[in-house]
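During the reporting period, our protein records have gained a structure token line. One record among many is quoted in full directly below:
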Amino acid sequence: MAYRLAPQAEADLEDIAFYIFLESDSLEIADRVTQSIAERFDLLDAYPRAGRARDDLRPGIRGFPAGEYVVLYRIEGADVAIVRVVRGSRDLEALLDDE
């Protein structure tokens, strides 16, 4: 299997890094958080069914925690498609409805 990031997931990671940098004034902290999230992508690549099915959000969507964030993804054939990376406290259903 392989994972791939949707454009919105890439934008989410950039937004997370920027927000953390603004709040902490530290590139090191921002890099550490985004690296920690990226390590979850590798884990999902190896164990794609590790995340919980979230058909309540949208059919085929799965969610996997990454600290304060949630990685939303789909299993597509032999690949893991990372759809969004968002703070767990956000309204996930509304975020997916906007797409």
Remarks:
- The helical segments are 7-24, 27-46, 92-97.
- Strands lie at 2-5, 52-53, 62-66, 69-76, 79-87.
- The chain has one domain: 2-97.
